[in-house]
Amino acid sequence: MSDNFRSRVVTQGTQRTPNRAMLRAVGFGDSDFSKPIVGIANGYSTITPCNMGINELAKCAEAGARNAGAMPQMFGTITISDGISMGTEGMKYSLVSREVIADSIETVCNGQSMDGVLAIGGCDKNMPGAMIAMARMNIPAIFVYGGTIKPGHYNGRDLTVVSAFEAVGQYSAGKIDEAELMAIERNACPGAGSCGGMFTANTMSSAFEAMGMSLPYSSTMAAEDPEKAESAEKSAAVLVEAIHKQILPSQILTRKAFENAISVIMAVGGSTNAVLHLLAIARTIGVELTIDDFETIRHRVPVLCDLKPSGRYVTTNLHQAGGIPQVMKMLLVHDLLHGDALTISGQTIAEVLVDVPNEPPKGQDVIRPWNNPVYREGHLAVLKGNLATEGAVAKISGVRNPKITGPAKVFESEEECLDAILAGKINSGDVIVIRYEGPKGGPGMREMLAPTSAIIGAGLGDSVGLITDGRFSGGTYGMVVGHVAPEAAVGGTIALVEEGDSITIDAEQKLLQLNVPEEELTRRRANWQPPKPRYTKGILGKYAKLVSSSSLGAVTDMDLF
Question: pTM of the predicted model, to two decimals?
Answer without folding.
Answer: 0.96
